[in-house]
Amino acid sequence: MNVAGLSDLHSAFDRTDRDAAERLRRSRVLLVGMGGLGSPVAMSLATAGVGTLVCVDFDRVDLSNLQRQVIFRDADIGRWKVDAARDRLRAMAPGVNVEIVREAMTVKNAEALVRSVDLVIDGADNFATRYLVNDACVLVGRPNVFGSVARFDGQVAVFAAPGGPCYRCLHPEPPPEGLIPNCAEGGVLGVLPGVVGALQAVEAVKLLTGMGEPLVGRLLLYDALRMRIRDIVLPRDPECPVCGEAPTITELAATGSFCAMPADEMTIEAAELDAWRRTGVPHTLIDVREPSEFAEGAIDGARLVPLPRAVTEVPRMVGEGPVVVYCRSGMRSARAAAMLRERGIDARSLAGGIEAWRRGGYAGSESA
For the chain, give me the number of helices (H) and strands (E)? Predict the structure, then answer.
């Protein structure tokens, strides 16, 4: 048990409410994504005295993550995020029980994961996972503490709580593919995920202990540039397809493309691609970055097809063997690989992108 965390929490309650701290100790929380939001939430909940954290993430730590994913250090680069997070959390709060799931959250595992916990923290960075988390929470009956960040703005809400709205009440369907960039593509103020993650942790503690008034039926908006915080009323939509009066979504299904969630068969490590190139394994190498990025350096033999054109142009370029797509850090290429695979093309995303390739010192990496 994290004695320090429980001691601090005890001081926040009246004597008649101290059993709330024990409820926190017995609780299980699922963290979907150990990135910019998941990192501060996990650290806050571990030191607050939450008994068990179930951490789900498929990715490895990259140098570009350190700017906003505060749980990781330089020494963690290349490690699985959930492994590095587990070690850091145990060092911070030796009594916390950390369970790790080293894979993406998918239709196959979502229901079981959500059913195994008391509360879910949504730290996803793509719409497909957000909708999957939401639908699973509604169908299983677990509250979903939602958070999102983009550039200088953040949002926090509690979805799927009894009587309250769900994420689909706010956004019934995802936006068109590629319309809204993720953090890696659109950028985000490095300290912003820490602020939003801390707010998510506050909501989680309130829900788990029964303290205060959670953000049920309200959407909190945080404007970092103007330092303004406001909330808007968000009622449950009686026509919502999953939590409405006559739901049409009664079982889990994929919504949109899991652009940031490549499974093992959808990725290729830099070392393996280097081996392919040295031994002559047939493949088509595609760079899905922008022309300005390509001009600053690319992998020898790569053909430039920016992400917005990949679906229409890459199929005409396919030769013998798989298609390998890459970008700067692996996010855009994961999206491209998912879209191409939906069209029957054997596509792989280079894990860690050209940054991982360069760190490995592999031959054939040009720089301007």
Answer: 14, 13
Contact 329, 64 (CB under 8 A): yes
Q: Which of 85, 79, 112 is nearest to 99 (CA)?
A: 85
Sequence-separated (6 or more) residues with CB below 8 Å from residue 161: 143, 207, 214, 216
Band (17; pLDDT cuts 50, 70, 90): low
Q: Which two tokens stand for residue 309?
A: 């054109």
Q: Are 304 and 336 in contact (CB under 8 A)?
A: no
Q: Tell me the residue type at 130.
A: R
Q: pLDDT of 173-221, one tens digit each? A: 876 554 455 555 556 788 999 999 999 999 999 999 999 999 999 999 9
Distance CA 138, CA 255 (A): 15
- 3-233 classified as CATH 3.40.50.720: yes
Reported as half-sphere exposure (CB side, CA atoms, 13 A), residue 17 has a value of 13
Q: Which fold has domain 264-359?
A: Oxidized Rhodanese; domain 1 (3.40.250)
Task: Give burial (CB, 10 Å; 0-12/13-18/19+) of 153.
Answer: middle
Q: Which residues are catalytic?
A: 183, 327
- Go through the chain and tell me how many residues it has: 368
pLDDT tens-place string over residues 139-163: 999 999 999 998 889 999 999 999 9
With a cut of 50, say whether residue 229 has pLDDT above it. yes
